[in-house]
Give the backbone structure.
Amino acid sequence: MLSKQKSISILFAENTLLMRKGFFWENSLIYPLCSMIYTSKTLKIDIEKIKNADSIIKSNMGIFSSFRGVGRLALATLLSLEEKPDDFFEKVQKVYEL
């Protein structure tokens, strides 16, 4: 049991460092959340997938969009785990408009 906790802790720490390297201009308080999203699925962070999802968000939001804050990176992290992040983001936008 202890080794499983240790491996999860190490994965979380590695994911946090990868987030810091990949998104050093972003708010550093969001790194642990994004890291935990991947760690909860026992996956190593994929910076390129997150950047791709972030570009999907940026290309589909307006100037006064609610997706323009610190939460954008967390949403991009969630989108990066989807097979079709652009379709999933459309669903998120529709739900948010309700």
Residues 2 and 91 are 40 Å apart (CA to CA).
